[in-house]
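Re-run requested by the PI after the first attempt was lost when the workstation crashed. Everything re-entered from the original request form. Ligand of interest: S-adenosyl-L-homocysteine.
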Amino acid sequence: MTNKQIKVILKSGKDEAVRRFHPWVFSGAIKKIEGVVFEGDIVEVYSNNNEFLGIGHYQDGSIMVRILSFNDQKIDDKFWIDRISEAYALRLSLKLENTNVFRLVNAEGDSLPGLIIDYFDGHLVIQCHSIGMFLSRDNILNSLQKVLKEKLKSVYDKSADNIVDKYPEQTNCYLYGASVNNIEVIENNNKFYIDREKGQKTGFFIDQRENRNLLSRYSQGKTVLNTFCYSGGFSVYALNAGAKSVVSVDSSAKAIELCNNNINLNSINNDLHKSVCEDTIEYLTNSNEEFDIIILDPPAYAKHVNARHNAVQGYKRLNTLAMNKIKKGGLLFTFSCSQVVNSQLFYNTIMSSAILSKRNVRVLHHLTQPADHPVNLFHPEGEYLKGLVLEIN
Ligand code: SAH
């Protein structure tokens, strides 16, 4: 990172999004760059009339600047400490009870584009999705130490996959503290092991916390099928809330292992739980069992708009199959985390599934991501998780 001043000047009329506090500057909006710029550099963004608009990280590609501040300020230690302490203050204000797991920094939602930090009882995972954030890891670590103080136990950097084009040799590594794996945490009184190193994403899908809690309200005495179960989040909540039995399905053997470990960690009677390592569509197609409640939480079917049509077809097929396996009056908890499938499109897709399944369906809940995954109102792309709880008749 350099102290040189690099100016990114926008084309006339291409400054409106930044003026509305959208934190991304696309390559097509840029007229010229004054100064020699390298990926990850701090650059200042100006309108065609030379008005200061913001300061942020530069990167080659379609999103060329990720704005860190719309004020004319230095991106120095104070900046990083302020941003991380604001992020932490929001999480404290949520007063999460019997929970020591939360998302501490949610990228654009915390005005830190490209940075994700998850908190597991003081053990952190950071994921840098931009070169600028990757090169700022010292500042980020320093701020975490200042803000979290003795609460900070370790920091594991899991950025390697995101920056492999520029830094092919980079591996995931500990930035601070001992290499601790299988961290034991609690979420709404449910216990989980977190495997930061080998787990998917940051190790745990914190974004489903409130939705898992909602499931526990409906679970007593019920038979539950939790598909795409990963580490068994929904399964553990359902069983701890008195479900009659739970089947957990995931195509990854590692996920099934994590799920089984979490069932045992909660001292749940193994007779009440069955785990199946299989593709969900195959499982639903081949099983003749019916359930009171089914959870569908697939990975993002579309990562890009070009894949949206196929994704919608995928959601439709999956949901139709699941609706036909639900007992009369039972519930379907169905989710999509594809950012390019918005809530209206998801809703319409589910309606198509209901028509195809010939079931009469009522919507009980509209679900989304929790407040520790805040969405910048001017960056609607940040809202990715959509869910519906449907009563299937
Ligand atoms: N519901 C989970 C998170 C799900 S993440 C929780 O609350 O933690 C998505 C999971 O789907 C991953 O574990 C992945 O291994 C699994 N998966 C992906 N494709 C699958 C498929 N076709 N069939 C079954 N599982 C699949």
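Saved to the shared folder this time. The pocket of S-adenosyl-L-homocysteine is lined by residues 200, 205, 208, 228-231, 233-234, 249-252, 255, 279-280, 297-299 (CB under 6 Å).
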